[in-house]
Amino acid sequence: MSKKQKGILWGGIIAASLVFSLVLQFLGLEGHSRAISLTLWLLAMVVIYMVFAMRAGRKTVAKIQEANRIFTEEHDTDRYIQALTELLDTEEDSQAQQVLRINLTAAYCDKREYEKARATLQALNPKKLNPQNRAFFWVNMALTNFYLGDEEEGMRIVELQKKAFDQMRTAKQTGPALAFIEIFELLHRGFVEDAQALLETARATWENEHTAPDFAFMAEKCGVTLEPLPEKET
Nearest 5 degrees, angle CA 213-CA 216-CA 217? Predict the structure, then answer.
C-alpha cells in the first residue's frame, strides 16, 4: 500500500471514528456500554485496515509477477528492466521497493552490468530488509563484487554469510550465483583444481541460456575449455 493510499485510509478511519464518538455521545452511552461499543469499533477499524492492506498487497504482487514473466518466459531482459524501473517510480510500499530493487539487480547481472547492479544494491540498507530479501541482497552483493574484481570485499561477505549461503545452495533462485561465488572463493584461496571440479558439477545442474555466459567466464578464470554438455533426457 502506498503512502498516499495509507493516508487516505487513515484519514477515513479517523473521520469515521470522530463521527462514531459523536453518535455515542448523542445516544448517551456511558460506562460499560460505551467501552464495549468503542472496543467493537476499534476491532472493526483494524479489520477494515487489514482488508485494504491485503488487497493493495495482492495488486502489487500481481504487478511484480507480471513483470517477472517478461524475464522468465519472454527472456527479454531490457524490457524487464524497463518494467521494474517503471514500477519503482510508482510503487511506494517499502517491501515492494525491496523486491523490485533486488530483482533489478538480478536483471543487471544477467546483462553483465555489474556496476549498475552494485549501485542498485547500495541503495538498500540490508538491516531494514526482511530475512528473505536480506539473503538475496548478500548473494547478489558478493557476486557483483567478485565480478568487479573486488575479491577482498567478496570474501568478507562470504565469510560473514557462510551459514546463510550454505542453506541456499540448492535453491533454484540462488543456486547458480552461489556456485559462481564458491568458484571465485576457491580460486581466491588457490584451490584451482577444486574450482575446476566444482565448475563441471555446477554446469550439470545450473547451465542454461541465462547462465551459459557466466560458465564460459568462469571456465576462463579456471583455465579450462568447456566441452558441450550431454543433452538432458526429456
Answer: 90
